[in-house]
Amino acid sequence: MTQTKAEARAERLANDEHAVDMLEVARRAQGVHVAGFTGPDAVELLAPAKVNLFLDIGGKRADGYHEAVSIMHSLMLHDVLHMKLAPGCGEGLSIDITCIAREGLPELDVPTERNIVAKAVRLLADKLGRASDERMVVCVEKHIPAEAGLGGGSSDAAAALLGAARLWGVPADDPRIEEAARALGADVAFFLHGGCACFTGVGDEFAHDLEPMRTSVVLVKPEGGVSTAEAYRAFDRHPTVIPQASREAALAATQAVDVPLCNNLVPVSEQLLPELVDIRAWASERADVEHVLMSGSGSAVFVQCPSFAAAGRVAADARMHGWWARATTFGSTRAAVVPTRVR
User: Which of 3, 22, 251, 259 could pair covalently with 8 via S-S, beta carbons 3.0-4.6 A apart?
Assistant: First the structure.
C-alpha cells in the first residue's frame, strides 16, 4: 500500500513545530466541512493523539495518586475542534458541545457538563475570574477513539483551553492555562507541549523534551475499552515493577528513538481485556513490525513499522481481524490554534 498525496504531504509537514497545515490535509482527505464557525468570534484547533513510549507507574501516594514516569509522543492523528462565542442567555457562561464521530468511530454520548472540554472551559473561566454572560459553542470532530490510552479527551481539553483563551483575548503563554491543564489531568499538560516529553510526579510535571521521531506507526484497538480506574485498582492488587536499569535509561534518553519501550500496566490491562493479548501476539509475529506496545492503560496498541507502506499493510490486516486500525506517523505536534488564512 502506497501513500496518498494527502498522507505524503501530512508526513512532510511533521517537521513543522505546529503542523497547522494538517487541517487542510485532513479536510481534503476526509471531506470535512463544518459550517457556522467563521468570523472573528470563531477559532479552529488541532488536538493530536499520543502514545506512551515509557510508562512506569509507582506506588500510591497519600493523596490517592500514583507516582509515575511517563514519556509521551504525539502523533499526526488528531481531533479537530471548532469553537465560537455567541450571545448569552442571562445566566453567565453556558456551553454547547456537539461531537461528530469520524474514522468509523462510534458516536459519543456524554452529557455536556461531564465532557472534559466543558470542564476545561469552565475551569479557565474561573481562573481568569471571567463572569461574562456568553455562550461557548464547540464542535469536536473525533478521529481519536475513546478508552484507548491515546489521550483524545485530554488533547481535546488542552485545545479547548487554548481556544477559549484565544476567544477571550488571553495570551497563549498565560500561566493560568497550564495551571488549568494540570488540574484537569495528568495528560492534559503534555498536549500544551507536544512532540516527545518526559513527565514525572504523577505524570503531570514536565521534566524535559526529547527529540521526536518521524517514523510510521499503526494504532490497533479492539472493540472493548479499558477503564483507567479499573486498571489502576488491578495494578494496586498485582503491581509489576519495571527494572531500575530500564527506568534510568528512559530518564536519561534525549531522543525518542532511544527510549526503552515499556509499560507496567500491560499485564493488568491484558487481564481485563484478553483481546489485547491477541493483538500483541498477532503483531509480534509479523516480519513488517519492529515494536509493539500498549499505550497508557489501553485499549489501543501501537505498532512501529519500518515504512509507511508497511504500516498500511499492517493496518489493513488488522481491520481484516475486526479491529479498528489507523496508519499514521509520530510527529512534533501539540494542541494548537489554526491560523486564519487569507483567501
Answer: 3
31 has a pLDDT exceeding 50:
no
As a whole number of angstroms, the distance between CA 23 and CA 183 comes to: 28
The pLDDT of 82-104, averaged and rounded, is 88
The H-assigned helical ranges of the chain are: 5-12, 22-30, 116-128, 152-167, 175-184, 188-193, 228-237, 244-252, 266-272, 275-284, 308-320
Rounded to two decimals, what is the model's pTM?
0.86
Element (H, E) at 292: strand 291-294
**Gap between the Cα atoms of 136 and 127, Å rounded:** 17
For residue 221, is pLDDT > 50? yes
User: Which region among 32-36, 50-54, 110-114, 249-253 has the lowest average model confidence (pLDDT)?
Assistant: 32-36
pLDDT of residue 341: 61
Strands 205-210 and 134-142: unpaired
How far apart are alpha carbons 217 and 327 in whole angstroms?
Answer: 6
d(CA 146, CA 150): 8
Cell numbers found for residue 127: 481562573
How many C-beta atoms surround the C-beta of residue 109 within 10 A?
6
The answer to whether 276 and 303 are in contact (CB under 8 A) is no
- CA dist 22 and 38 (Å) reads 19
Which of 97, 51, 106 has the alpha carbon at shortest distance from 256? 51
Q: What is the pLDDT of residue 90?
A: 76
What local confidence, expressed as pLDDT, does residue 246 receive?
Answer: 96
Output phi, psi for 28, to 5 deg.
-70, -40
- Measure CA of the first residue to CA of the last residue in the chain; give whole Å: 35
